[in-house]
Design a protein that fits this description.
This protein is an alpha+beta fold and 274 residues long. Helices cover 23% and strands 20% of the residues. A hairpin with a 7-residue loop joins strand 7 and strand 8 (222-226).
C-alpha cells in the first residue's frame, strides 16, 4: 500500500497502468488469482507483467540462518519464456537502482512442489514471477504466527519492486521478434554465417539494445546499443550457438523487457537419428 501511495503522489506520468491487487483464497487453491487470470485472458487484457510478492519481509529461516541482503525471484520455464525474461529484467534493473539488495533468480515456477498467485497468470499466458524472502521459516507459515517482519529488509525488497515496475512502466513496449505465423525473424544473412536479427518497431522507441549469450548460459553475456532501426547483423556469430534478444529503449533511457528469439514448440513423440 505504501508503494501505491508513493506512485500515486509522484506526479510521474507512466506510460503503463500500475495495478495493485490482493487475491482471496490463495491457500484454498489460488481461487482469486485463477479467477482474475482467466478473466484477463478472456477479455484480452494487456498485462505486461505480474509481480507476486509473497513473504518478502522476514529474513530469518527456521533453521536459525538469516539473509538480509537478497531476495529470490521464481520464474516459470522454459529458459526463454516471458517469465524468465521478466526475472532477468528484475535482476538487471534492481542491480542498477537497489544494489544493496541482491536479486537471486530461481529457475523454478515456485518453491519445490508448491505454487502461488503468479502461477495462474503463467498458466493463462502472462509473464509472472514470485518474489519471496531468501530464507523461510516453515513453522510460521499458514498460521497466526506468520507476522514477523524486519522493516529494513522489507524496505529494500519494496524498493526493488518500485525501481523495476517504474522502469518498465516508463519504457516502450517490447519489440515483436516473430512474424505473424510465430516464426522468429532470425536468419544467417548476408554471408550465410552471420546472425541477422529483425523485429517490429515499438511505439515510442528511439533506439534498441541487442543481447546475446551462449546457448548453455542462463543470463545475457553481451549487449550493444543501436539506433532506431529494425534490423541488426552480428558478423560471424552462429545462430546455432547463441541465443539472441532485443529490447526497446525510450527517449529517457528506460528499457523494455528483452524479447528473445525462440523456436516454436516442437512436435512431441518423435525421435529422429541422422
Amino acid at each position: 500500500m505504501e508503494l501505491a501511495r508513493v506512485f500515486a503522489q509522484s506526479g510521474i506520468d507512466f506510460d503503463a497502468t500500475l495495478v495493485f491487487i490482493t487475491f482471496a483464497g490463495e491457500e484454498q487453491g489460488l481461487v482469486g488469482a485463477q479467477a482474475h487470470a482467466q478473466r484477463a485472458e478472456t477479455e484480452k487484457l494487456p498485462i505486461e507483467a505480474v509481480f507476486n510478492n509473497d513473504m518478502v519481509g522476514n529474513p530469518a529461516g527456521g533453521n536459525g540462518l538469516a539473509d538480509t541482503a537478497s531476495v529470490r525471484v521464481f520464474s516459470e520455464g522454459p529458459e526463454d519464456s516471458p517469465s524468465r525474461e521478466l526475472a532477468r529484467y528484475i535482476r538487471r534493473w534492481a542491480a542498477r537502482y537497489v544494489p544493496s539488495d541482491v536479486v537471486r533468480p530461481i529457475a523454478r515456477h515456485d518453491r519445490f512442489g508448491r505454487g502461488g498467485d503468479h502461477t495462474a497468470f503463467n498458466q493463462h499466458g502472462f509473464a509472472a514471477v514470485r518474489l519471496t524472502e531468501a530464507r523461510e521459516n516453515y513453522e510460521r507459515q499458514h498460521s497466526v504466527e506468520d507476522t514477523v517482519v524486519d522493516y529494513g529488509y522489507l524496505t529494500r525488497n519494496a524498493r526493488v519492486n518500485a525501481a523495476v515496475v517504474a522502469t518498465m512502466a516508463l519504457a516502450p513496449p517490447a519489440p515483436r521478434v516473430a512474424d505473424d505465423r510465430g516464426r522468429p525473424m532470425l536468419g544467417r544473412q548476408p554471408a550465410g554465417y552471420d546472425a541477422q536479427l529483425r523485429w517490429t518497431a515499438s511505439p515510442g522507441a528511439v533506439g534498441y539494445r541487442v543481447f546475446w549469450r551462449e546457448a548453455w548460459t542462463p543470463d545475457w553475456q553481451h549487449e550493444v546499443a543501436i539506433g532506431n532501426v529494425t534490423e541488426y547483423v552480428l558478423p560471424d556469430v552462429s545462430i546455432d550457438d547463441y541465443v539472441f534478444g532485443v529490447a526497446a529503449v525510450g527517449p529517457d533511457g528506460h528499457e523494455s523487457v528483452v524479447s528473445a528469439y525462440v523456436n516454436p514448440p516442437r512436435a512431441e513423440g518423435r525421435v529422429t537419428l541422422k
